[in-house]
């Protein structure tokens, strides 16, 4: 059997202190994420579909072969790569980025990658000319009769900050020498690369995250776990505790975990990843055992999980020998 977002709705079951954790995703507190934006509009000739570009003065455009724009979101406010504040100009609500402007608050990224303003994913594109160039608004521009509704999706490190995504706000650091219970080792480990969305890397032995790479895992949950509780754990011992494994960690940041609607295969690429939903965030700190999330065991099912990073590069050999390292599901 295949699960639908097997760890999508979770509650923490550990009593250990989480004081060492600073959540990066829920809620977002002065941690920026950077991305490009892609417009998705109705199918029409020269329609408003494609990556948002930018004019030299900071106007954001769909179409017209303008250089792709990069944006960063921090505490609901957006700036572009030139550190110009992105605003909704009154009274038209045109989305543009101006030198010296204070960014308009209220933006966020939802779990499906969509950019929202005040929790509304609806944006509008209005034509600038007859050559397929469109400006972006949060409401149809006054006097414009050819405006069409669009959706904007963020491609980069942004993840949702809304508590409505049913994600535990604080994972727990587990204390003590052991974490009792039966462990489920991943039976498939597949890296994917957002920078090479169609690339297929196949089944690997290592978990890898970089600014563009994530790793997908399949777990087979034993039928005997029916009615029991399962936990998603990430174990990162200190280098000196490892006997048959090793890891390389660069930067200081978090690991971000997603539940996949379906398991992955050896030919899965970033482009073909199933629908995903954020389930938790763990600090990438050597010497920690982190309880990311807990729920009823999806007994008898094969489930898929995705691990990405924020502010770090991590590569490790998944291994259950002392000391265990990597992502596991444990029957409590």
Automatic annotation (TrEMBL):
Q: Does the keyword Signal apply?
A: yes
Which residue intervals define the domain Cell wall mannoprotein PIR1-like C-terminal in the entry? 76-150
How far does the signal peptide extend, from start to end residue? 1-20
Q: Which UniProt keywords apply?
A: Signal
Say which domain of life the source belongs to: Eukaryota
Where is the Ubiquitin 3 binding protein But2 C-terminal domain positioned along the sequence?
184-322
Q: Which Pfam families match?
A: But2, PIR1-like_C
Descriptive protein name: Ubiquitin 3 binding protein But2 C-terminal domain-domain-containing protein
């Amino acid at each position: 059997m295949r699960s639908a977002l097997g760890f999508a709705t979770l509650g923490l079951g550990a009593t250990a202190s989480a004081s060492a954790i600073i959540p990066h995703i829920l809620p977002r507190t002065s941690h920026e994420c950077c991305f490009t934006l892609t417009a998705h509009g109705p199918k029409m000739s020269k329609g408003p579909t494609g990556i948002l570009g930018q004019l030299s003065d900071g106007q954001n455009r769909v179409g017209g072969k303008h250089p792709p724009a990069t944006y960063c979101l921090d505490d609901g406010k957006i700036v572009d790569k030139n550190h110009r504040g992105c605003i909704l100009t009154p009274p038209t609500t045109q989305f543009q980025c101006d030198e010296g402007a204070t960014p308009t608050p209220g933006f966020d990224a939802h779990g499906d990658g969509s950019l929202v303003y005040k929790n509304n994913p609806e944006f509008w594109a209005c034509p600038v000319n007859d050559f397929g160039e469109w400006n972006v608004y949060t409401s149809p521009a006054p006097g414009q009769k050819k405006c069409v509704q669009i959706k904007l999706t963020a491609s980069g490190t942004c993840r949702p900050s809304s508590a409505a995504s049913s994600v535990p706000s604080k994972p727990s650091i587990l204390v003590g020498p052991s974490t009792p219970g039966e462990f489920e080792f991943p039976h498939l480990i597949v890296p994917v690369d957002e920078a090479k969305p169609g690339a297929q890397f196949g089944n690997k032995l290592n978990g890898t995250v970089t600014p563009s790479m994530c790793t997908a895992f399949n777990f087979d949950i034993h039928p005997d776990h029916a009615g029991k509780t399962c936990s998603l754990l990430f174990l990162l011992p200190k280098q000196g505790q490892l006997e048959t494994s090793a890891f390389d960690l660069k930067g200081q940041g978090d690991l971000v975990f997603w539940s996949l609607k379906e398991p992955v295969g050896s030919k899965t690429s970033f482009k073909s990843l199933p629908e995903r939903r954020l389930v938790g965030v763990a600090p990438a700190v050597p010497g920690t055992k982190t309880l990311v999330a807990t729920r009823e065991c999806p007994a008898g099912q094969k489930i898929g999980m995705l691990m990405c990073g924020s502010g770090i590069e991590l590569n490790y050999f998944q291994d259950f020998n002392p000391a265990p390292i990597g992502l596991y599901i444990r029957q409590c």
